[in-house]
Design a protein that fits this description.
The protein has three domains: 265 residues, Lipocalin (Beta Barrel), CATH 2.40.128; 173 residues, 3-Layer(aba) Sandwich (D-Maltodextrin-Binding Protein, domain 2); 94 residues, Periplasmic binding protein-like II (D-Maltodextrin-Binding Protein, domain 2, 3-Layer(aba) Sandwich). The chain is 25% helix and 31% strand. Strands 10, 11, 12, 13, 14, 15, 16, 17 and 18 form a nine-stranded antiparallel β-sheet that branches. Strands 19, 20, 21, 22, 28, 29, 30, 31 and 32 form a nine-stranded mixed β-sheet that branches. A hairpin with a 5-residue loop joins strand 30 and strand 31. The chain is elongated.
Length: 654
């Protein structure tokens, strides 16, 4: 009996413990964990697979020794074994009470339970936020893309050698969620575990090869298992008397028999993103970490991590001798001047001039917008599209201090095998939906008279982290829409050609610095001083970048400050139109051409229901330009492009 045939068996429902709902089912990869003290771990590789009543997870540090060139655990030194032993992984029963999850009966690689508390969970789009009831940590999990497929949850009783009766493993689980699988096999006996004996327990995560259907181990507590095939395809049978599932496999030339009890058997599950939305009051959203300004999914209006940061920031401000303000930035060439101005002392010079304290927080783009909406940061570097469809749509009145730049080739559509834009409707297209990539694709089609074919597009949603590898490893996907540096990785493969980029729609994907209007309007004028300090620091950096004599040194330091290479920074700058001169930025913001292009962005956002479910017209989220003209209802202005600060910089009045 194959795995799919097992999945089609009638399961002995109901599950004893409260079952997990549909939105909790699937494979999630952790983006980050942030602790109360501010420490944040973005590097540990963590996967969590969840069925109705059991789960498996695995956590491996990037500092773990590699298995390359080693045939057995004996090939590792004692110090390397000690590092390998720090991995975590296991399987447990789960109970869901509608708001939080409790884990019990762990069969784990570690011999103690490091995470005994319950977890409060909320799913928003492809993001799952878990936070401790005592506020000790916040974890950001991301649903991994999967084709529709079975959900199988089998709890391992034991694995043995039938010929001798020797038990090789006791406890654990086999979990399959579409294209993802996990196998946890506990130790044969609960005795003292020392040294290499620790690895008699295994937790492995595997991904299905779409061509062969085999599940290949991608991550394991035993690194020697990585790259091997997970033996879960067939060899199953149902014992009708005991309602147990048995599987016979050959491992290392030896016949093994596994005996499972059934938790979940579902032959077909659609692992879809959720489109639930939430209001600002009382909603917890998510924190994301990563090197990208674009969001990989729609985040709602409030951030659990933002809540944590708000608490910390409030404490800090109580003690601060100056008014303290926070700006969130993410890694993108248009935002790289921010870490540079901080590292070189330019920011401090301008902050001291205006008697304010300015702190910078480096976040993933999605998390930075979420924190801005949740009011845990005061300013944020973002695109014009996100300024509309997240803070403005959520009712957070937002002011743009200055225009940073616009994308002039950074964003692109890439296709395989000589395909042209006209062939796109016939192809599977990989992209991050409801972002500027989605906007770029639809604009390209409209410009080529293909607007009527937009509903026919076969879109595959993914994440910024996965898009390059997912496209290059799946030849059935004909096109990808993304931005640098991921687009550069795909182009470097030599397997694609660029068929459209943002240089063909110049001035439509714009980067700005946004501040909450209420911050600027503080009665003590501190918000106004904060804005002047930021504007002065920004244009001092622009002046240095525009200087032929200083440019090379500035770019080198900027690359170091943003943890990039000089070559990569220059490549991205070549396809970015920065506004070095404040009058040029002000002229661009006031131009009729920019207003027409903003209307295109508004139309896209409204068509895709990104301006909020409560808004019946795009005019309900209005934009006011520096010349005081308004797109939309004058009483519903939510986004303001302010001339005051760009004009002050232009007139040298800062």
């Amino acid at each position: 009996m194959t795995l799919r045939e097992v999945a089609a068996l009638p399961a002995p429902y109901p599950i004893a413990a409260p079952a997990a709902p549909d939105w909790l089912i699937g494979c999630f990869r952790r983006r980050s964990i942030t602790f109360f003290g501010g420490q944040c771990d973005r590097s540990t590789e963590v996967y969590w697979l969840q069925t109705r009543g059991i789960c498996a997870d695995i956590r491996v540090s990037p500092e773990r020794p590699r298995a390359r060139g080693r045939a057995s655990l004996d090939d590792f030194t004692e110090s390397e074994i000690a590092l390998l032993a720090q991995a975590e992984g296991g399987a447990a029963r789960t109970e869901w009470d509608g708001a939080s999850m409790r884990w019990s009966s762990w069969q784990a690689f570690q011999i103690h339970d490091k995470w005994p508390e319950t977890g409060c969970l909320r799913r928003i789009g492809d993001c799952m936020i878990e936070f401790a009831p005592n506020d000790a940590y916040v974890e950001d999990w991301r649903l991994q893309p999967s084709s529709p497929g079975p959900v199988v949850g089998l709890q391992l009783i034991e694995e043995r050698v039938p010929e001798t009766g020797k038990v090789t493993h006791r406890g654990g689980a086999l979990i399959v969620c579409g294209d993802h699988a996990a196998l946890v096999r506990g130790r044969p006996c609960a005795t003292q575990i020392l040294g290499r004996e620790l690895f008699s327990c295994e937790a492995s995560y595997a991904v299905r090869d779409p061509a062969s259907g085999d599940f290949t181990i991608a991550l394991s507590t035993n690194p020697l298992r990585e790259g091997q095939i997970l033996s879960i395809h067939d060899g199953f049978e149902l014992d009708h008397e005991t309602q147990q599932v048995r599987q016979r496999i050959v491992e290392n030339g030896e016949l093994r028999e596994r005996i499972f009890t059934i938790d979940t058997l579902e032959p077909q599950h659609h692992f879809r993103r959720q489109r639930q939305r939430c209001r600002l009051d009382g909603c917890r959203g998510g924190y994301a970490a990563g090197p990208c300004r674009r969001r990989p999914m729609r985040l709602a209006a409030f951030s659990a991590t933002g809540l944590l940061l708000l608490t910390l920031a409030s404490c800090a401000r109580t003690e601060a001798p100056k008014p303290t303000f926070t700006l969130a930035w993410s890694v993108y060439v248009g935002y790289d001047p921010y870490p540079y101005m901080q590292r070189t002392g330019i920011l401090k010079k301008w902050a001291d001039k205006y008697n304010v304290d300015i702190q910078f927080r480096r976040l993933d783009y999605a998390a930075s917008i979420d924190a801005f909406v949740a009011k845990t940061v005061d300013a944020c570097a973002m695109t014009n599209m996100e300024a509309l469809d997240m803070p403005a749509a959520a009712g957070v009145d937002t002011t743009v201090l200055f225009i940073d730049d616009f994308s002039n080739g950074n964003d692109m559509i890439l296709a395989r095998g000589g395909s042209r834009l006209q062939d796109i409707p016939k192809e599977k297209i990989l992209l991050i939906e409801e972002t500027v990539s989605h906007y770029l694709l639809e604009r390209a089609m409209a410009l080529h008279g293909m607007e009527s074919q937009i509903p026919r597009l076969s879109l595959i949603n993914t994440t910024d982290v996965d898009i390059a590898a997912a496209f290059l490893n799946d030849p059935s996907i004909g096109a990808a829409v993304t931005w640098k540096p991921m687009a550069g990785q795909i182009e470097a493969s030599g397997k694609v050609q660029r068929i459209f980029d943002s240089s063909q729609i110049p001035g439509e994907i714009i980067d700005v610095l946004a501040v909450r209007t209420e911050v600027l309007n503080r009665p003590d004028q501190s918000g106004d001083r904060f804005a002047k300090a930021l504007t002065g620091a920004w244009y001092e950096v622009m002046s240095r970048m525009a200087s032929a004599s200083a440019r090379e040194e500035v770019l080198q330091k900027m690359a170091e400050a943003s943890q990039d290479t000089l070559a990569a920074l220059k490549s991205q700058l070549a396809t970015t139109q920065l506004f070095f001169d404040p009058p040029a930025a002000l002229t661009f913001a006031n131009s009729s051409d920019t207003k027409q292009k903003m209307q295109l962005v508004r139309t896209f956002c409204f068509r895709h229901k990104l301006l909020g479910d409560h808004n019946q017209s795009m005019d309900d989220v209005a934009i006011q330009y520096p010349d005081k003209t308004v797109q939309g209802r004058p009483d519903r202005v939510r986004l303001r492009l302010e001339e005051k600060y760009m004009l002050a910089a232009a007139n040298r009045q800062l």
